[in-house]
């Protein structure tokens, strides 16, 4: 099988990719020139260029081009996404983006980059979600981004997610992620009821592993497949916390991609190349971050990207 017959789809949590302007409506003060992170034009542009470099390389061992679709998490504005695709390494490609401002209190959102030569945008919407703390207080979190388009001529439904974090503990937050899984599944079931042969891509930072209840019990089924299940090992994942690897970043697909007709799923992988990895001190082997605590490292993200290869 030649490179010409293959294409890739990717997802990348860019970790706090804020612009350096203070938005009075969000909690982004740390990421301003006078803020705690000393986040100015140089550091911002440096990170944008690094993220663009990663995108330009994902999947190119197998495919002729960088990913046709790239889901992003933790981008502050549409302009941030546009700055990525207008960077030196990506500007020669015909990318555009879909982004909506979400209710997230920090102002970080999801976005979808798409290569206009291979994906024709039809429509998009931000699916609002409502989740609550254990005390009943509403938790403002990211919308689910839903995009419809023709992927190499086939109508394809794409969902980009960034589910609530585990920051307050797994036990106190897992019901939020189950709630989002049920909202997403409801929309997927609607699509499949109307068209049982629909092509669906689900990607995101789910803040849960493939074996977690929200994914394994509420999302995966005989019609929704998770090729990432076997990628998580004690020595490999997309992020590490307290010495334990997790695979929160995942790409799932409808079982129609397993059929021989049309676009066909081939494999999934973690993009954990050496240049994305920290090789110093106690963080050796982990993703090379922009900051470790208050210290600026000038890296990429605390997550490795993931990608999937498909045959046209």
Automatic annotation (TrEMBL):
Coiled coil: none annotated. The keyword Metal-binding does not apply. The keyword Hydrolase applies. Residues 8-311 form the Endonuclease/exonuclease/phosphatase domain. GO terms for molecular function: endonuclease activity. It holds the Pfam family Exo_endo_phos_3. It comes from the Bacteria. SUPFAM superfamilies: DNase I-like. Keywords: Endonuclease, Hydrolase, Nuclease. This is Endonuclease/exonuclease/phosphatase family protein. It comes from Wenyingzhuangia gilva.
């Amino acid at each position: 099988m030649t490179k010409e017959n293959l294409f890739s789809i990717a997802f990348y949590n860019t970790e706090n990719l804020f612009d350096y302007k203070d938005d009075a409506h969000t909690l982004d003060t740390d990421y301003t020139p006078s803020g705690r992170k000393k986040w100015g034009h140089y550091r911002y542009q440096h990170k944008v260029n690094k993220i663009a470099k990663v995108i330009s390389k994902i999947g190119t061992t197998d495919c002729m081009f960088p990913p046709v679709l790239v889901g992003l998490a933790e981008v502050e504005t549409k302009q941030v996404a546009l700055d990525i695709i207008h960077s030196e390494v990506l500007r020669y490609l015909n990318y555009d983006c879909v982004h909506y401002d979400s209710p997230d209190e920090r102002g970080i959102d999801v976005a979808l980059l798409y290569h206009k030569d291979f994906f024709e945008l039809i429509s998009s919407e931000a699916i609002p979600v409502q989740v609550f703390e254990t005390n009943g207080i509403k938790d403002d979190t990211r919308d689910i981004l839903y995009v419809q388009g023709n992927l190499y001529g086939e109508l394809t439904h794409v969902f980009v997610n960034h589910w609530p974090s585990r920051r307050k503990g797994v036990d106190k937050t897992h019901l939020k992620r189950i709630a989002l899984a049920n909202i997403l599944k409801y929309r997927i079931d609607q699509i499949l009821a109307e068209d049982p042969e629909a092509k669906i891509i689900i990607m995101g930072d789910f803040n849960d592993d493939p074996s977690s209840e929200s994914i394994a019990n509420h999302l995966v089924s005989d019609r929704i497949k998770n090729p990432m299940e076997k990628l998580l090992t004690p020595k490999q994942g997309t992020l590490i916390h307290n010495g334990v690897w997790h695979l929160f970043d995942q790409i799932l697909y409808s079982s129609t991609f397993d059929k021989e007709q049309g676009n066909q799923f081939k494999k999934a992988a973690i993009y954990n190349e050496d240049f994305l990895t920290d090789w110093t001190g106690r963080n050796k082997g982990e993703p090379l971050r922009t900051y470790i605590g208050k210290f600026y490292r000038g890296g990429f993200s605390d997550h490795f990207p993931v990608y999937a290869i498909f045959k046209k």
